[in-house]
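request received
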Amino acid sequence: MTFKNLYIEHERSSEAEDWVKEEIAEQEARFAEIEASMEALAPTREKWYQEFFDRIKTNGFNLDGDDKMPIPDADLPIKTADRKDQVVWKYGVDSDDTPRNGQEA
Amino acid sequence: MARPHIEPFCDRDTHFKPMRLLGFGTGMHYKMLSMDVDTGACSMTVQFDGGYKRSPGFSWSEYELIVIEGELKVGDRVCRKGHYFYVPAGYAMPEISSDQGCLLLYMYNTGEPSHEEATTHHASTQTQLYHDVDSYMDLSWAMGNVAKPSVATGCMIKLLNYNPNSFAMTFLYCMTPNFYQDNISYHDCAEESYHLWGTSWMMQFGDVPTGGYFWRPAYINHGAFASEYGCIALGRVDSKLFNHFHYNPWSTPVENADRSEARLLARDPLLYHWAFSQDHNHPHSPKDFELTMPRRANEEGHDTEHKSDGHRHDHWHGHHHHDEESPHTHDHSHDHSHDHDHQH
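response:
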């Protein structure tokens, strides 16, 4: 079985074209609001990260389902000075300027 | 560019807007949740006013739909909350109406919303793909371990739609009260969720309440997870769901994608080397021979004499040849009784 006709080609009306453009513009504004609110949440999130580290050191990290493994303190990651606490990435890997393995940015 | 990362978002924080696209009539209102900037594909919370009616017709895009609250009439059938529909592109639905009004989640997957009045399906429609189900009453909760490694006990699913080519899924999921899962996850696919009821929490984004929504591109960290009082949500992934768990909250999407690649090498080394070796590095995408191989039905003027197993009348190419001279013409009675002597 294939899903070949998920979309049937047709000419989009100018009315639909305008509607899509308008919605995309509103989505841009919505995204900006979300990005700002997530930046504002950073101090709270820092606390949540530390609580998470405490739990996975003691109760354990969920490896698979309910299988848990305590993570030694020495294995916990460190946030380096150049690393930002970013949780919203507009287009995922396409909006991430982190160098890929072995490549320059 | 597809859809941007919309997370977290709650539709309760915005107002309904009247739908003004032609074909939808009056009395339909929507809140946009996310939209693909290339195709216009989108997910919307939709409200039909009491007395709303839409003529029979089809959409150029496939779409999915679930009733959140109220009653939706599809033809003469009354569909209540939890009723889910998968509607292929070009599939003509009967009249849709709501006597008292209802709240719906609409997901147009491959193009902007459209409604063409019609009482018959478009010629290109894959009508066999249509299905609908009362997901609250007629499906049972199953363990959430559809992917390995899996979610913790207490997260369960009801599978609503599955694409056997891409492994994309639509499903209801729930978290029991006091559910928690202490890991950070990312996937090789985009993920979407709408909270039908209840609140869950994720370490990056905080609480996602009733009406809470996200569209999250691939490789973005989310979790740890918790739900104090439980929740029920509709979730979707646009290709195969694989849970990459870890505990570094500061890894980036590129680092996560690199890790996925490294894990692919560890898991499927032969496939990895085939895909990435110089000699087989296809600039556009690897070819699936099933999509391009010559097929019998594509041949013009195919002759039945040489394609069957010695009989003039063959059935494999999907239609019948009636040859008056043939001993295998259908103008005879089919009395195929077989005597089998089974000895065990």
